[in-house]
Amino acid sequence: MNTSKATLANHLKLDNKAMKNVSDKMNDLLSDYHIFYQNVRGFHWNVKGENFFDLHVKFEELYTQLYENIDELAERIVTIGFKPLHAYSDYLKNTIHKEITDVSDGDQCVKHVIDGLGSLAQSHRKAAKAAEEADDIASADLLTRFVGDIEKRMWMFTMFSK
Questions:
Q1: Beta-bridge partners for 105
Q2: By the 8 A CB rule, do 37 and 70 touch?
Q3: Which CA distances in Å does 21 have to 42, 79, 109, 125, 136?
Q4: Neighbouring-strand partners of residue 48
Q5: Per-residue 3-state assignment (H helix, E strand, C coil) for the chain
Q6: Spatial contact of 99 and 153, defined as CB atoms under 8 Å apart
Q7: pLDDT attached to residue 10
Q8: In the chain, which end has fewer C-beta atoms inside a 10 angstrom radius, N or C?
Q9: With 0-12 CB in 10 A as exposed, 13-18 as middle and 19+ as buried, what is 45?
Q10: Is 134 within 8 Å of 81 (Cβ atoms)?
Q11: pTM of the complete model
């Protein structure tokens, strides 16, 4: 009976160095998600103006999806044998997003959401490229699925702001 633990080397059979790069890129993405998620929650709580009712609901829909993606992304990092970041100090060090505070104007909130979604899509592409190069098709598929949804939401918010 084989009682050895499953590892990258004996279970997934993927190159550990390449997978470390995938993990690093996905942890950067996880950091991006957390900061953007918190920004969107702030927009949800603080938005004012004539589009309050529409935006309040849309921001909640967005941050709910971001939360679900965060969980799947972190679990994928564990699945490939690494540790997801889990401290806000680490997120702030590893994100391309800036914390956005004291924004309540609906148009400004939407502009920040569009910009944030665009940055998030860019981070997905970097992580997906690393996954493809490592032959990690499951991570690449997950990231591709996420970016498709993000791009669709970016399009919808862009149409709202026209």
A1: 48
A2: yes
A3: 32, 14, 33, 14, 11
A4: 105
A5: CCCCCCCHHHHHCCCHHHHHHHHHHHHHHHHHHHHHHHHHHHHHHHCECCCHHHHHHHHHHHHHHHHHHHHHHHHHHHHCCCCCCCCHHHHHHHCCCCCCCCCCEHHHHHHHHHHHHHHHHHHHHHHHHHHHHCCCHHHHHHHHHHHHHHHHHHHHHHHHCC
A6: no
A7: 57
A8: N
A9: exposed
A10: no
A11: 0.92
Rounded to the nearest 10°, the torsion over CA 19, 25, 147, 9 is: 10
Read off the tokens for 39.
Answer: 């920004």
pLDDT digits (tens, 9 = 90+) for 28-70: 999 999 999 999 999 999 999 999 999 999 999 999 999 999 9
Quickly count: other Cβ atoms within 10 Å of residue 7's Cβ: 10
